Amino acid sequence: MHIERLGKHLGAKIHGVDLTEKLSDDLFEEIYAAFLEHMVLIFPEQDLSPQQLLLVGERFGELEPPHPLITPHKDEPRVTMIINDAANPPENEVWHTDVTWKRTPPLGAALHAQVLPQHGGDTMWVSMSAVYEALSCEEQTRFASLNGVHSIAHGFSGGNYDTKTKDGSRVRDALADYPPLEHPMIRTHPETGRQAVFVNESFTTHIAQLETEESETILSRIRSLIADPAFQVRVKWEPKMLGIWDERCTQHQALADYYPEYREMRRVTVVGDEPVYRSTL
Question: Lower CB density within 10 Å: C or N end of the chain?
Answer without folding.
Answer: C
